[in-house]
Amino acid sequence: MGFNGIEGAINVPGEIPWEIVVLYFLGALLFVVYYGRKTGGLRSFTTIDLVYIGIGGAFSVVWEFYIGSFLGRFLPSTPFVSVGFWGRLIIVFIIAALVRKVGAGMFTLLVYNLLGDLFHYGFGGEPMYFIYESLTYGLFVDIMIAVTGGHLFGIGKELSNGAGEATATRTTTILGVIQGAILGLTWAIPDPVFYSAFFSPFLYGSYVNWAHILFNLGAFMPGDIVMGILASILAVRIARAVGQ
Amino acid sequence: MSLITTLISWFLFFYGVGFPVLLIVSVVRLKGFMEITRYESGTGFMYRVNPVTKVLLGLAVMGVASTTVWWIGALLTLAISLVYLTLRDGVRKLVYLSVVLVSSLISSMWSVAPYVTPSILELAFPHQNLVTVWTWPSYFEVMGYQPNLTLQALMYGLQIGFRVTAVLASALILVLTTTTSDIFRMFTKLRAPLSLTFSLLVGVRTVPRIFELLDSSVKMQFIRGLGRGKPRIVYPFLLLYSAILALVPTMVYLLRGAKTMAISADTRGFRASPRRTEIVELGFRKEDYVIFGVVVGLILLAIVANLLGFGRSVPYLGV
């Protein structure tokens, strides 16, 4: 029994070897540092980006801890539905779509985690959670921003291939929806895999059941994909309403 | 007989999920959330304490609540709640806090108790016979419910709940009694990057603002005729429904306002130089030393409790 009940178990049967976890996070961190240096990192955010990120963090906290958590209790506990998580997914995607710079995803999740600590957890799981959440969920969003060259969900992209404007808009929308779906899919992975197969036994000494993990992985995907698509559509609308 | 069992089971199900929500929407409302997440100036003891000390106190409370037996967590919750009386409008804040704590206790108890397996309960309550208090209809297993609800499962849920409430009550004290600028200074002192601190502070200020804006948006929907002529009993549901509808407008409103905030920060020379210059220095006063004493006391309490066998008896496995 360690501090805050952290067991530190790294030899539970079926648990992902800690070397792999460390390698992933080190690799992710190196990638972030490398990319951050290349693009200017924290300095490249303008003040308004920082305000967007702060608002996004606050919204995620309000949704996940106060509104979504109560709504979620009305539904039976099933891995297919996760009201609190979906809300955060949509909010983070919207903020990423407004900022559209590499680092936006990670930074939003970092701020969300710190705000969650200030308002709810009291720094209970730190620094574990902000490393884990930023470098999984946040990183996936940032990779998508990098891949799309800063035109997440097709925002701000000019298509001039000779086709009419309506066709171009439709193509952008379809591309945006596909990006949302892919991002939603990636968001379904960390919780069942990293959390159930490493952090949960590491922190609380729980046992690992891969059948359960694979089931959860499959169960998380449809909902997260649908929410990713919804988020991409909402993000485009909000970006337009905010005047980008 | 089975009809009665079904009715009672569903009543218990809706009690677990519905009662905390009902309590929140009827007593605290969005306005109450705004009040217990926002700084208001005051002269009480906690207002004079350095924010770093308050974070330290929160950490100590968390450490003690999670390493000792549940009733120490319950006593800590009570003690911290009483501190709310020293805040501005203390009684009202205490009422809001109590409702939030009670509903959080009920909901965390009911989100754990029906699902916890007997094998975990045997770890938590060794050498005890599990006392069944209710047998669910078999189809409740679809929701992941265990076949029987035992007394120990309820206690297990309650014990986890008390750990959460102690931390929640102490975490909110920091945001209730510290000005945003002081939180900013605290993070600057802790050498956090300026951009991070800024975003965080925008967040701290935005949380109560979101409740305020949601509240106005909900009220506007009612003024425009939502729920006219409907029976009062559906009002809580309408409130929830209107709160969901209020989300996107609130978000757009806040994000549009972001520009003003960014411009006002930029005109004040934000990030013009890599470090901030300080006019007000955050220092430690005698109130801080009192809290340091409390923190040391809490740590000693945790050690003594563990030595006397009142250590953490609940293996929290995150059901």
Secondary-structure-based class of chain B equals mainly alpha
The CATH architecture of chain A can be given as Orthogonal Bundle
How large is the share of residues in beta strands of chain A?
A: under 5%
The average pLDDT of chain A is: 81
Major β-sheet annotation of chain B = 2 strands, antiparallel
User: How far apart, in Å, are the first and last alpha carbons of chain A?
Assistant: 52 Å
Please write the CATH class name of chain A: Mainly Alpha
Count of all domains of chain A: 1
Instruction: Tell me the strand percentage band of chain B.
Output: under 5%
Give a verbal description of the structure:
The complex is a heterodimer of chains A (244) and B (319). Chain A is mostly helical and 244 residues long. Chain A is built from eight helices and no strands. Chain A has helices at 18-39, 47-73, 83-99, 104-121, 128-147, 165-187, 190-204, 210-242. In chain A, helix 5 runs antiparallel to helix 6. Chain B has two domains: 7-177 and 283-306, no CATH class; 184-266, no CATH class. Helix content of chain B is 68%, strand content 2%. Chain B has helices spanning 2-35, 51-67, 70-83, 90-112, 118-124, 151-177, 180-189, 194-223, 235-267, 286-307; strands at 132-135, 148-150. In chain B, helix 2 runs antiparallel to helix 6 (151-177), helix 4 (90-112) packs antiparallel against helix 6 (151-177) and helix 8 (194-223) runs antiparallel to helix 9. Chain B is globular, with a radius of gyration of 23 Å. The mean pLDDT of chain B is 83. Chains A and B meet through helix 2, helix 3, helix 4, helix 7 and helix 8 of A and helix 1, helix 2, helix 4, helix 6 and helix 8 of B. Chain A: Keywords: Membrane, Transmembrane, Transmembrane helix. Chain A: The chain crosses the membrane at residues 16-36, 48-68, 80-99, 106-123, 135-155, 167-190, 210-236. Chain B: This is Energy-coupling factor transporter transmembrane protein EcfT. Chain B: The chain crosses the membrane at residues 7-28, 55-87, 94-113, 153-178, 233-255, 289-310. Chain B: Keywords: Membrane, Transmembrane, Transmembrane helix.
